[in-house]
Amino acid sequence: MQIRMNKAENIVTYQDIGDVRFVKNIRARNLSIRINQQGDVRVTIPRHINRKQAEFFLESKKQWVKKKLGELNNITGTGRRMQEGDILNVRGKSIPIRLRNDSESEEEAIWRILLEEAKEYLPERVKELAFRHGFSISGIKIRRMNTRWGSCTAKNSINLNSWLVMLPGYLSDYVILHELVHTRHRNHSNSFWDELDSIMGGTSRRLRKELKSRRIMYFQ
Q1: Number of domains the chain is built from
Q2: pLDDT for 75-89, tens place per residue?
Q3: What is the CATH number of the domain that holds 111?
Q4: What is the pLDDT of residues 88-145, one digit of tens each?
């Protein structure tokens, strides 16, 4: 089921697999789905195929996509999957993974824990950084995102991935400031990067590169 569409970026958010980017490629011969190491899902659409057909194709392959995302998700640096009783280290806290009932998986329990921690920390941090740098926002939402760290709506509401609390503070601040700058610059123009880099003391490009090396649902 689709839950959100960003027409400008050709991104559709699906409830069970997260964000999917649809890209038209006139040189492509066939519809294809690619998933990179960060879990980004991309559907390539040939010239003779329309968007509705591409979405139907994705629906037909959704179980495969979910399987591949599952192979990337929920693993430790040693390749072992997180299990009940393992410890999550969240902003200096050691939190054991405990399942609420027989139907809850370890992955669901992890996201539940992180959502609770993120709602406690991120809204105040967003307000603090917005006030410090003179940004005005209309709202803050914290939720599970499988492929994105954050987003900014046309009404200047900030959406953040609850997984941000698993990143070092300077990287989560980078994501927050990235989205705050989008309240003034809607795209990734030179003006956008110049303002972000000015706010971050010339470190934005280095942090952007570091963030790309991080994976959601990967434990180090």
Answers
A1: 2
A2: 555 556 678 888 888
A3: 3.30.2010.10
A4: 889 989 999 999 988 888 888 999 999 999 999 999 999 999 999 999 999 999 999 8
Q: For residues 159 and 20, what is the distance between their CA atoms, to the nearest angstrom?
A: 17
**Burial class (CB within 10 angstroms; exposed 0-12, middle 13-18, buried 19+) of 146:** buried
Residue 58 within a domain: yes
- Yes or no: say if 192 and 180 are a contact pair by the CB < 8 Å rule: no
Q: Left (φ > 0), alpha (ψ -120 to 50) or beta: where does 154 sit?
A: alpha
pTM listed for this prediction: 0.68
How large a percentage of the chain has pLDDT more than 70? 88
State whether 33 and 109 are in the same domain. Answer: no
Residues 91 and 59 in one domain: no
Closest CA to 176 of 211, 150, 202, 139: 150
* Per-residue tokens: 151: 């987003």
Whether residue 102 is found in the same domain as residue 57: no
Token duo for residue 193: 């990067």
Provide the domain limits for residue 9: 2-72
The tens digit of pLDDT for each residue in 25-60 reads 988 889 999 887 567 789 999 999 999 999 999 999
Structure token pair of residue 137: 């926002």
- Are 217 and 71 within 8 A, CB to CB? no
Terminal Cα-to-Cα distance of the chain (whole angstroms): 32
